[in-house]
Amino acid sequence: MATLKENLLRAVELTESDSPRLDLEVLLCHLLGKSRAWLYTWPEHPLDEAQQANFERLLKRRIAGEPVAHLTGSREFWSLPLKVNRSTLIPRPDTEVLVETVLTLCPQEQLQVLDLGTGTGAIALALASEKPRWQIVAVDRMPAAVALAEENRQQLGFTNVEILQSDWFGALSGRSFDVIVSNPPYIDPKDPHLREGDVRFEPLSALIAEESGLADIRQIAGAARAHLVAGGLLVVEHGWDQGRAVRRIFSECGYRDVETRLDYAGRERITLGRH
């Protein structure tokens, strides 16, 4: 049987991955139930026959482009282990900028917060982990996503998050919030990158929006004012090249103090405004 070191050398087979070595480390940790530090402490450790066979199957699927998060069934976000599946987007590191932005702008210990299109529940659960006295409602249109977010909520034990099925604000009549956040679909349906990388394995409904990717952001910005308290904050994630257009949408909808924050690569990623 091959050793850990020998299996890690097979990273050269992942020609289309941006992080081939890391991909294999995550897969081996998943198979063995060990940490990355353990892998490098025991590089000559051999996989037994069953482990090697499982590794070969996972490697074959990864070479075919399947996301590592789907192969392991989990992804870490804000240091929280979240279950993932094909019903939702895989949480991205750049979305943590949205969490950071809300926490920076909202030092209050008690707030009513709404997360629109919650998917795995990543944003809502990250905020809940930092602010246990905030009351957070997280909604998604897709029943499978609602079920997944609720499973993550229960696994992490957060009692200050309520998961609901709702098409944006459809099930929230009469409810108001201090903060509304969203990572909505914002990719242009004609974007050629939809045929590349991890997004090939994620639901299009969570990725694309009409009007060059701006339709859902426009809908959220227009409807959110009826659900925000005076001075309430709306924060949305968007594409790196959409900052100017989203600021224009926010301004046209009557938001004030509109600004855009940068992601970890220095690209415009988060736009916010106050009611």
UniProtKB/TrEMBL annotation:
Q: Which GO terms describe its biological process?
A: methylation
Domain of life of the native organism:
Bacteria
**Where do the Methyltransferase small domain residues begin and end?**
95-190
According to the entry, every stretch annotated as the Release factor glutamine methyltransferase N-terminal domain falls at 13-73
Sorted UniProt keywords:
Methyltransferase, S-adenosyl-L-methionine, Transferase
Q: Name one Pfam family in it.
A: MTS
Give the enzyme's EC designation.
2.1.1.297
Positions annotated to bind substrate: N183, P184, P185, Y186
Residue numbers binding S-adenosyl-L-methionine: G117, T118, G119, T120, G121, D140, W168, N183
Against SUPFAM superfamilies, the record matches this protein to:
S-adenosyl-L-methionine-dependent methyltransferases (SSF53335)
Q: What does this protein do?
A: Methylates the class 1 translation termination release factors RF1/PrfA and RF2/PrfB on the glutamine residue of the universally conserved GGQ motif.
In which family does this protein belong, per the annotation?
Belongs to the protein N5-glutamine methyltransferase family. PrmC subfamily.
Name listed for the protein in its UniProt record: Release factor glutamine methyltransferase
Origin species, per record, is: Microbulbifer pacificus
In the UniProt record, the gene name given for this protein reads prmC
